[in-house]
Structures are given as structure tokens and as C-alpha cells.
Amino acid sequence: MANFNSTEKIRPRKLRHKVVKKSRVVFPPFSMRGRTFAVRRLRDLRKNSSALVREIASFVALINHITEKKLKKPYLQFEPEAIAAFRQDAEAFLSNYFKAANLCRIHAGSRILGVEQFRMVNIIGRLMFG
């Protein structure tokens, strides 16, 4: 352990900056990189069981819009249990859709999830399920 003079200030561990040695930048072992932060955030989101579709009013408005346009029934009303079932199915569909797109991204060797992966999921879905 090094001896410090009274004039020398010790910075707290969180406030330390990069250490530069011989034209090389050495990061301290506790520094947060972008990937580690993203991975930690994803782990937290996986543990969280909150709903993907948060705004229930906007989801109900979407259901009403779809029933008006597709079924041609402008004033069709749904029970709250039916809305909850629609919401669960929509969340399951979205999570499976993004999982499949992520698998396409991994297969393509890409680092970013793009439109091409979602198009591939649609094509594969059409081929498999008609």
C-alpha cells in the first residue's frame, strides 16, 4: 500500500478516469462498456414481468379501429376479459416475432436487427403456414 501525503487527494473509485500508459488507454476493470450495460439491461427486462403493451386505452382504441375497418361493425364492444386475452395474445405474438427476427439476425451474422430480418420472418411464416 502506498503512502499518501496530506496534500495529495485520493479520488473516490467511481470518479476515476481512464489511465493512460505509454500511448495506450487502459480501462479500469470496473468501467461500464456499452455492451455490458445493454446485456445487464436485457437481463433486468427478462426478469421483469410487466406488460409489453402498457397503454390499455390505446390498445382498446386499436382493437376498435380494427373491428370497424375489417369487420364493418362500428360499435362492437368487448368485455374486459376479452381485451385481456387480446393483449396477452398480442404480447405473445410480438415476443415470438422478435425472437424469430433475432434468430435471422444471428444466422445472417449481422450485429443490428434490421428490416431484412423482419421480411425474412414474414417470408418464412408464409411458406410454413400458407
Task: Please give a structural write-up.
This protein is mainly alpha-helical and 130 residues long. The chain has a single domain (14-129), classed as Histone, subunit A (Orthogonal Bundle), CATH 1.10.20.10. Helices cover 56% and strands 5% of the residues. It contains 4 helices and 2 strands. A two-stranded antiparallel ribbon has the order 1-2. A hairpin with a 2-residue loop joins strand 1 and strand 2 (24-26). Helix 3 (80-108) packs across helix 4 (115-129). The mean pLDDT is 77.
Strand content: under 5%
Low-confidence stretches: none
Distance between the termini: 71 Å
**Structural class estimated from helices and strands:** mainly alpha
InterPro entries: Histone-fold (IPR009072)
Organism: Immersiella caudata
Protein name: Histone H2A/H2B/H3 domain-containing protein
GO molecular function, one term: protein heterodimerization activity
